[in-house]
Amino acid sequence: MLQAKLSVSREEAISSIDERLYGSFVEHLGRAVYGGIYEPGHPLSDEHGFRKDVLDMVREARVPIVRYPGGNFVSGYNWRDGIGPKQDRPRRLELAWAAIETNQFGIDEFADWCRAADTQGMIAVNLGTGTPKEAAELLEYCNHPGGTALSDLRRANGHAQPHNFRVWCLGNEMDGPWQICGLTADEYGRKAHETAKMMRWVDPDIQLVACGSSAMELPTFPVWDRKVLEYTYEDVDYLSLHRYYKYKGDAKELITSFADMDRFIDTLSATIDYVKALKRTRKQVKLSFDEWNVWDSEMPLPGRWLEGPESHQQYYTLLDALAVGGMLCTLINHSDRVRMACLAQLVNALSPVLTKNGGGMVKMPTYYPFMQVSTLGRGQALAVRVQAPMVETEHSGDVRTLQSAAVYDEQAREVRVFALNCNEEDMLLNLRLEAFEGELRMVEHTVLDGEDLMAVNDFDAPERVKPHAAPCTPVAGERAQIRLPAQSWNVMRFQV
Question: Can you give the pTM of this predicted structure?
Answer without folding.
Answer: 0.97
